[in-house]
Every structure is written in C-alpha cells, then in structure tokens.
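go over both lines:
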Amino acid sequence: QVQLVESGGGLVQAGESLRLSCKASGRTFSSSTMGWFRQAPGKEREFVAAVSTRGADSYADSVKGRFTISRDNARNTVYLQMNKLKPEDTAVYYCAASSIRTIVTTREAFNYWGQGTQVTVSS
C-alpha cells in the first residue's frame, strides 16, 4: 500500500510560480513511476506530467516548457515546479503512483492517488 500526500498549492497571480510536493509512504517509491494530474471544475481529470524510475519525463502539451517534474528517491518525494502560471492552470492537482516502471500517462496506469491540492491562478 502506498499513501501519497500533496502540499504546496495556493492562490497566485498569472505569471507567478508554485512548487507542489508529494510525499510517499512505503518502500516502493523508487520502483514507481510518479505522475501529476489535474482536474478543473466540470472537467475530466487530465495528465500533467510523469517521471519514470530512471528519470525519464513526459508532459502534457499545455504545460510543456513551463512545468518541471522531478523526484528525490532519498526523500520519497516527487515535485512539480510550475512557472508562468496561467488562469487555465487552475485545478485540483493530484499526485499518483504507478507500479509500471516506464513512462505512463493514462489515469488507468496509476494505482495510487493522493487527496489533491488546490491551485488557483488569478488573472
């Protein structure tokens, strides 16, 4: 069993930055692909970014060049650095873990989910 706890969300203005963190419990963090998803009101949960066990990463086109995902296996933590935030980035952001070691980007590939953290970007 893996438990994921997100932190770092908040209210910022357009153009500003935030860094989300996700702390994982359990011994399987280093063997898990980690991902971030987001869900805006009235919309489906969508893929944002993922990082494999070897550090390969993947991003949604909407965040490419602005967001960076990274992981610290010693701290069982995955981060999402979000720069140049836009109002359309407003959503609840979820951390997720997959037992698949290579890059995956679909919701179905992720076994464990955090409770989410709210990110609100004002114009």
Q: What stands out?
A: The chain has a mean pLDDT of 96.
